[in-house]
Amino acid sequence: MSTAVLENPGLGRKLSDFGQETSYIEDNCNQNGAISLIFSLKEEVGALAKVLRLFEENDINLTHIESRPSRLKKDEYEFFTHLDKRSLPALTNIIKILRHDIGATVHELSRDKKKDTVPWFPRTIQELDRFANQIL
């Protein structure tokens, strides 16, 4: 088995604490405006082909795709995809079709957070104690 290092804008190199060069994957925080979508399909002939045809019919550009067997259901495969940001208008329709017509489990990943939200923070000693007891 041979290995190759491909030049990738998301792949960085740095020196470790011991002076050795190490590789790491940079956090791509929506580089180029990509949308991440995870869906799982039952293992059957042509299942992925149906989804890819659906993407093609709706002019959705896939920039990356990965697959793996599902850890939750033995007869399913999970697919992790990056979609081009220009695909956003058709995405809600695609997700609905994937869920209802094809029977896929779909998760849309986004780092876009509402700007008007405030993270929870303990306001009283009791809240801080409860948090410490549950987490620590």
TrEMBL record:
Residue span(s) of domain Biopterin-dependent aromatic amino acid hydroxylase family profile: 106-136
Entry's Gene Ontology molecular function annotations: iron ion binding; phenylalanine 4-monooxygenase activity
One Pfam family in the UniProt entry: ACT
Sequence ranges assigned to domain ACT in this UniProt record: 36-114
Coiled-coil blocks: none
First-tier enzyme category under EC: oxidoreductase
EC number of this enzyme: 1.14.16.1
PANTHER family: AROMATIC AMINO ACID HYDROXYLASE, PHENYLALANINE-4-HYDROXYLASE
Name of the featured protein: phenylalanine 4-monooxygenase
Lineage summary: Eukaryota, Metazoa, Chordata, Craniata, Vertebrata
